[in-house]
Specification:
Layout: H1 6-18, H2 20-29, E1 38-44, H3 50-63, E2 68-74, H4 83-95, E3 100-106, H5 111-128, E4 132-138, H6 141-149, E5 153-158, H7 165-170, H8 173-176, E6 179-182, H9 190-200, E7 212-214, H10 220-235, H11 239-267, H12 269-279, H13 285-303, H14 313-318
Parallel strand pairs: 1-4, 1-5, 2-3, 2-4, 5-6, 6-7
Bound molecules: guanosine-5'-triphosphate and magnesium ion.
């Protein structure tokens, strides 16, 4: 894969998607600190034109001789069922270009698992040597925010006449956007949208003020400033990156601990007993919570929530304590 073999890249990604343990090993083995890609997450409500925009961004980057790795996340949102097919059709003209690599990730069966695998795919594609790694994700819920933390730059795509959707976007998304794009400006109403965004704009950390760019994804020329803004943000500096990396790692720790606690709870006799007692109304919920919290903290400190006398699995898992 590191020698630039695309078939090896595709096989490695499949391996990593299907096997979380292999995934960790692979990421550890990747070279670090070498030439890196510009990594961009393009997010926004369903149907705002993210795919159309990305299609143009890829064309612009290819004209400049840059290579692109693209990750398409199949949204779980009921509004966008079947969007994956649409995305693929839209990107079709790039799929035969040797300078472009497209990979889809389905979140339908396991949204959390899929969103966490994306950060690894970004790393792998970066190590492969693409100049740009682009992720398209529909901006609904925590999955989208988690995905955005895996890229250095987040582009939030909106469009005129979004109405209540902007309220939805404010929850979580206004904080992570490094660049705002108002797509479908050809429809009119973009100026109203622009002042709405500017009124709600969250100034980023590290002295970066997110630009608001009006485009029509049908018109390539109008998309060029988006590419410039992406490059500019990528070159901007470390402070914001620090915060993103902080959130990324913190979420990894939270996810890992949560997974261990769930596993522990399912085989812990004290937990089962407490469930029974709460059910019989011998104990109130908050008292039970205190007792169980104490128990879980003790377990966590003493043996990391793994079975004290488990099987060979314990030793194997101990190697993964870096997280
Ligand atoms: N008028 C106008 N329509 C556009 C523009 N960009 C995209 N569209 C149309 O908007 C529709 C949705 O575009 P997509 O690119 O699939 O949007 P998306 O955000 O990727 O959608 P999901 O992936 O389903 O969330 C399509 O019918 C596009 O042709 C634009 O700049 N102007
Ligand atoms: Mg799309």
């Amino acid at each position: 894969m590191l020698k630039g073999d695309k078939r090896a890249l595709a096989r490695l990604i499949t391996l990593v998607e299907n096997n979380p343990e292999v995934r960790r090993e692979v990421i550890r083995l990747l070279p670090r600190g070498e030439k890196r890609a510009v990594t961009v997450c393009i997010t926004g409500p369903p149907g705002v034109g993210k795919s159309t925009l990305i299609d143009q961004i890829i064309s612009i980057l290819r004209e400049r001789g840059k290579t692109v790795g693209l990750i398409l996340i199949d949204p779980t949102s009921p509004f966008t069922g079947g969007a994956l097919l649409g995305d693929r059709i839209r990107m079709q003209r790039h799929s035969t270009d040797p300078g472009v690599f497209i990979r889809s990730v389905s979140t339908r069966d396991d949204p959390e698992g899929a969103s966490s695998v994306v950060k690894d795919l970004v790393r792998i594609m970066e190590a492969f040597g693409f100049d740009y790694v682009v992720v398209e994700t529909a901006g609904a819920g925590q999955t989208g925010v988690n995905v955005a933390n895996s890229c250095r730059t987040t582009v939030l795509v909106l469009m005129p006449y979004l109405g209540d959707d902007i309220q939805m976007m404010k929850a979580g998304f206004m904080e992570i956007a490094d660049i705002y794009v108002i797509n479908k400006s050809d429809l009119g109403g973009a100026d109203v949208m622009e002042s709405l965004i500017r009124a709600n704009l969250v100034k980023g950390e590290g002295g970066w003020t997110p630009p608001v760019i009006k485009v029509s994804a049908y018109n390539r020329k109008s998309v060029e400033p988006v590419v410039e803004a992406i490059d500019e943000h990528d070159a901007h500096g470390d402070e914001r990156r620090l915060y993103k990396t902080f959130r990324l790692l913190r979420n990894m720790v939270v996810e890992e601990v949560e997974e261990r606690i769930k596993e522990w709870a399912s085989r812990c006799p004290e937990f089962t007993e407490m469930v029974q007692r709460v059910m019989r109304e011998e104990v109130d919920m908050y008292t039970a919570l205190d007792v169980l919290l104490e128990e879980v903290m003790r377990e966590l400190c003493e043996n990391g929530l793994y079975p004290a006398h488990g099987h060979g699995e314990v030793a194997e898992r101990d190697e993964h304590t870096a997280v």
